[in-house]
């Protein structure tokens, strides 16, 4: 991390992997092991030698060995980071003023990589994805905190129930789970008990869901930090309403806890159940951030930003994400990573952004140089469509159809709470029964404007409307209006039924003629056939209406 953040040791090309990771992978390959913690002391000494050579080759300077020089290098790197591109983008997204500046805390280290009695982890007092009131998190034995967040190793679950849920999704038997992937609750019961008590105490104190980090050094628990946790829109609403019902906060606080822009996430489309049954499942990962995402595969943040600017929907596919990927993650429909758990960078950032994310999909092999991803024998290239289900962790080939979200449960209860305290009533613009029903379901207190002419835009009604405009005499117009009358009566009945008891403002017919008459050859031919006249007569009349 020091070489990356302080010395600027980055990949030369975006298709390359991290220079330190490249060295680690080479040493593991030579040693014939898969995990970093399988390397022995002599291997680590060899790593240090190669790291120093790489630093010298890329930076032209020796790696600093003086502790104070290292410390000041780290301090200055933090202050420099305040004005880098990703920090500026993050402040813009979160509404943080640039003049606030940043600060540095210097504290003694504790080590989670001192053997099998040491560990590190990240945990949440409630589920940051769906808001469930359940302590959850991940840990790694014999590791440092960066290993969990960076997603280099896929961690294990802290709680037994979380571990059992993970095993069920992964298709792992209970016997195998207990033997190979035990939860902290099972592997370190005393440490878990202490951690569980602390997380409860912290949530009760702050009266909000907490995001916490800890390290276990040789059997002793060290608590590193806590903060109010980032969460999805759905989790935000559920946590606020649960805390209200549990008596931890009052009604006004529950409303203040819900950010208006994040409520939009609850209105996003969800996968159509019928389409899901027909979709081809490529693989499964961890359901890191719920939602439905369909888009074209991209592998790099700058490409994602460019494609999105061109109007394309994209899904970022990465081995793992880092802060450098923030700009791409911000515009992507969803994120898919090969490595990392529920507390990895990809998972935490995606939940904060309200983005769909599937992490730790170990079956995917990403090749940045060829810009391809191989999944269970199927090779997909950049630009191919892929779909992610952030609620189940499933990855689908191609596009999967979506449907509109429904307002219910805690969201509906929150809207009722809003009505109790609101000083501003909101009406909608609606011109059809369907639009009126949707608006009413979302809490509209009436219709501010029902534009009569907009009631005739669908395929069946537009022909009669055009016939009324294009008819050369009064009699022809009356015949056309007679066709329109049943349509309009039915629509008004539907609108008034949806808005029962609410005010509706209706604007009488005021059609901009040029918007209704056909200007394309196909439309003009259809009208000529419907009215029994020549195409030339239709063209002539359409020309007068412009």
Notes on the protein architecture:
It is a single chain. The chain has 546 residues and is an alpha+beta fold. The chain is built from 24 helices and 21 strands. The strands form five sheets. An eight-stranded mixed beta sheet has the order 7-17-16-9-10-11-12-8. A five-stranded antiparallel beta sheet has the order 3-2-1-4-5. Helix 11 packs across helix 18. It is elongated and about 100 Å long.
Outline of this structure?
The chain is α+β, with helices and mostly antiparallel strands and 546 residues long.
Give the strand order, joined by hyphens, for the main sheet. 7-17-16-9-10-11-12-8
Report how far the terminal alpha carbons are from each other: 66 Å
Annotation field: number of helices: 24
Biggest beta sheet attributes: 8 strands, mixed
Query: DSSP strand (E) fraction?
Result: 15-25%
Question: SSE layout and pairings?
Answer:
Layout: H1 2-5, H2 19-31, H3 41-59, H4 67-81, H5 85-94, E1 119-124, E2 136-141, H6 145-150, E3 156-157, H7 160-170, H8 174-180, H9 184-187, H10 189-206, E4 210-217, E5 220-228, H11 233-245, H12 251-256, H13 260-263, E6 270-271, H14 273-278, E7 281-284, E8 286-289, E9 292-298, H15 301-309, E10 314-318, H16 326-331, E11 334-337, H17 345-353, E12 356-359, E13 364-367, E14 372-375, E15 378-381, E16 385-389, E17 394-397, E18 402-403, H18 409-421, E19 428-429, H19 433-441, E20 447-451, H20 459-470, H21 474-498, E21 504-507, H22 513-516, H23 521-531, H24 535-545
């Amino acid at each position: 991390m020091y070489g990356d953040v302080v010395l600027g040791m980055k990949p030369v090309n975006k298709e390359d992997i991290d220079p330190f990771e490249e060295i680690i992978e080479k040493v593991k390959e030579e040693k014939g092991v898969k995990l970093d913690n399988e390397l022995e002391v002599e291997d680590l000494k060899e790593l240090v030698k190669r790291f120093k050579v790489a630093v010298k080759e890329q930076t032209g300077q020796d790696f600093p060995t003086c502790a104070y020089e290292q410390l000041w290098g780290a301090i200055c790197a933090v202050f420099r980071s305040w004005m880098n591109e990703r920090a500026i983008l993050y402040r813009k997204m979160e509404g943080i003023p640039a003049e606030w500046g940043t600060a540095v805390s210097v504290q003694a280290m504790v080590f989670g990589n001192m053997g099998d009695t040491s560990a590190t982890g990240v945990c949440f007092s409630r589920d940051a994805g769906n808001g469930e009131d359940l302590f959850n998190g991940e840990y790694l034995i014999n590791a440092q905190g960066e290993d969990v967040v960076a997603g280099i190793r896929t961690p294990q679950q802290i709680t037994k129930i979380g571990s059992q849920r993970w095993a069920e999704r992964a298709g792992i038997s209970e016997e195998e789970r207990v033997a190979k992937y035990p939860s902290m609750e099972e592997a370190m019961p005393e440490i878990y008990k202490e951690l569980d008590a602390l997380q409860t105490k912290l949530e009760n104190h702050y009266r909000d869901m907490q995001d916490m980090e800890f390290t276990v050094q040789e059997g002793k628990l060290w608590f590193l930090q806590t903060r109010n946790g980032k969460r999805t829109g759905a989790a935000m609403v559920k946590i606020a309403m649960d805390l209200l019902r549990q008596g931890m906060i009052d009604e006004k606080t529950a409303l203040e806890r819900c950010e208006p822009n994040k409520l939009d996430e609850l209105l996003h489309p969800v996968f159509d159940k019928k389409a899901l049954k027909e979709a081809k499942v490529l693989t499964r990962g961890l359901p890191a951030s719920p939602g439905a995402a369909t888009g074209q595969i991209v592998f790099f943040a700058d490409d994602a930003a460019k494609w999105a600017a061109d109007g394309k929907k994209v899904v970022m596919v990465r081995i793992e994400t880092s802060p450098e990927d923030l700009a791409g993650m911000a515009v992507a429909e969803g994120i898919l990573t090969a490595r990392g758990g529920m507390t990895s960078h990809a998972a935490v950032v995606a939940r904060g952004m309200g983005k769909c994310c599937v992490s730790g999909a170990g079956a995917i092999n990403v090749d940045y140089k060829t810009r391809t991803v191989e999944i269970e024998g199927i090779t997909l290239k950049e630009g191919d469509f892929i779909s992610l289900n952030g609620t189940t962790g499933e990855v689908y080939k191609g596009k999967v159809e979506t449907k509109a979200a429904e307002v219910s449960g805690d969201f509906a209860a929150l809207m009722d709470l809003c009505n109790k305290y609101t000083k501003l009533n909101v009406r909608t613009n609606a011109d059809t029964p369907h639009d009126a029903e949707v608006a009413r379901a979302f809490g509209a207190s009436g219709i501010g404007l029902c534009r009569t002419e907009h009631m005739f835009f669908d395929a069946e009604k537009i022909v009669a409307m055009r016939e009324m405009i294009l008819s050369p005499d009064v009699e022809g117009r009356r015949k056309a209006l007679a066709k329109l009358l049943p349509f309009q009566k039915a629509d008004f009945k539907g609108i008034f039924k949806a808005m029962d008891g609410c005010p509706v403002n209706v604007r009488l017919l005021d059609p901009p003629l040029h918007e209704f008459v056909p200007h394309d050859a196909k439309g003009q031919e259809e009208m000529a056939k419907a009215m029994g006249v020549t195409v030339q007569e239709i063209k002539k009349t359409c020309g007068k209406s412009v």
